[in-house]
Amino acid sequence: MHVSARADYALRALLAIADTGGGELVKAATLAEVQQIPLSVLHGILLDLRRADLLVSHRGTEGGYSLSRPADQITVGDVLRAVGGTLTTVRGLPAGSAGYQGVATGLRDVWLAVHGAVEQVVDRITLADLLTPEHRPADPAHW
């Protein structure tokens, strides 16, 4: 698994929005400044998150962005898929499409196992978990 800057930015933006408690609209410029994300990059990320039904945009001078559902219903996996597609890749393709012959045949099974392990972690952790320190394990290996 590779975590791109785009995926990191998307998670940081959604966490900042979620941290408002859901009642406050957050402007893209504010997100960019507070999270130190280039505004031009952030606009594309916010569009992807909106298309994935993770964000709602509100127009107008008092507009901004809000979560489309509660933070405890949005997982890290949802966000990663919205901005990056598949969670794990092999040579730029989804792990499931890797094909091998001969002595390397077993590699596909390894990549699928890695993909499954990543899914188990990122599909279990929600934005709310990340915002609530008591929900986080003392050892991150125990998510």
From TrEMBL:
KW Nucleotidyltransferase (keyword) present: no
One GO cellular component, as annotated: cytosol
Organism per entry: Micromonospora pallida
Family matches, as PROSITE patterns: HTH_RRF2_2 (PS51197)
Membrane-traversing stretches: none
Name by which UniProt lists this protein: Rrf2 family protein
Alphabetical list of PANTHER family matching this protein: HTH-TYPE TRANSCRIPTIONAL REGULATOR ISCR, WINGED HELIX-TURN-HELIX TRANSCRIPTIONAL REGULATOR, RRF2 FAMILY
NCBIfam families from the UniProt entry: rrf2_super
Keywords: DNA-binding
Any one GO MF annotation of this record: DNA-binding transcription factor activity
InterPro entries listed in its UniProt record: Tscrpt_reg_Rrf2, WH-like_DNA-bd_sf, WH_DNA-bd_sf
